[in-house]
Specification:
single chain; alpha/beta; TIM Barrel; eight-stranded parallel β-barrel; about 15% strand
Length: about 260
């Protein structure tokens, strides 16, 4: 059994991108099945133009909460002229964490571009904080490919204000890139408020798999949750083979078994 610093009341979360096809076909039916599995927290991947999955933020929140879950985080990109609408919509939906999920090549092709991006993130983080929200950035693997001799992830960590910008660390992608998340927890304690929890198959392709079915040692990683500053975590599986609901059930059940 895992001895960890994870609060016992912390609910297992799900990034809804994992079930994007199922949600597109039947939003409410999918939420009902997610709740039945036992997930308690959700991270959206369907915000656009002031709405979540095409719904008014309050209506979507009510639908989620009707099944005993909470929408606490959201992946989105937006123009700075949209910031006030974004903030108001996310507050109405009950979201606490706004996460920038991706950066294009133009934002990571030079150190100067990355430093400018960090300035932008600080600015957005400040606006979020003024409204009782938190702003963060989610990594893939390209942040660990050197640019002018430095790692983009390091540049972002060093040039964003810890009080304004947190990191949602994707534990699959940082492992895929050959980097040690524990080293980052030690060097930047408290910066990693959110985690993406997904597993990796053994072998050259390093494909995604259900949590507990691969080679990433989550028993060890969760013992560092307090050092990392982790407040919530979300199962995510970008690519699922077979039944998607059964896949996210396997991940949930494994995590439930080790976090008791």
């Amino acid at each position: 059994m895992l001895m960890s610093a994870v609060p016992p009341a912390l609910k297992i979360g799900l990034q809804l991108y994992s079930l994007r096809n199922e949600i597109s076909a039947d939003l409410e039916g999918s939420l009902q099945k997610i709740a039945a599995i036992g997930y308690g927290k959700l991270e959206a991947a369907g915000y656009a133009n002031g709405r979540f999955y095409g719904m008014d933020p309050r209506d979507f929140r009510a639908m989620v909460e009707n099944y005993g879950m909470q929408l606490t985080a959201s992946h989105l990109t937006f123009g700075e002229n949209e910031t006030q609408q974004v903030i108001e919509a996310h507050k109405a939906a009950g979201v606490k964490y706004l996460v920038w999920p991706w950066i294009g090549k133009e934002d990571r092709e030079s150190i100067v571009a990355l430093e400018n991006l960090a300035v932008k993130f600080n600015r957005l983080g400040s606006l979020c904080n003024e409204n009782g929200l938190f702003f963060g950035y989610h990594n893939h693997d390209f942040e660990f490919i050197p640019v002018e001799g430095r790692l983009p992830y390091d540049i972002l960590l060093e040039n964003t204000d810890p009080a304004l910008v947190f990191m949602e660390i994707d534990l699959y992608w940082i492992t895929y890139a050959g980097k040690d998340p524990l080293a980052y927890f030690g060097k930047h304690p408290g910066r990693f408020r959110l985690w993406h929890v997904k597993d990796m198959m053994a072998g050259e392709e390093r494909e995604m798999t259900e949590v507990g079915s691969g080679i990433i040692d989550y028993n060890a990683l969760f013992t560092y949750s307090e050092l990392a500053g982790m407040e919530e975590f979300f199962v995510e599986q970008d690519v699922i083979r077979g039944d998607a609901f059964e896949s996210v059930r396997k991940s949930h059940d494994y995590l439930e078994s080790i976090l008791k």
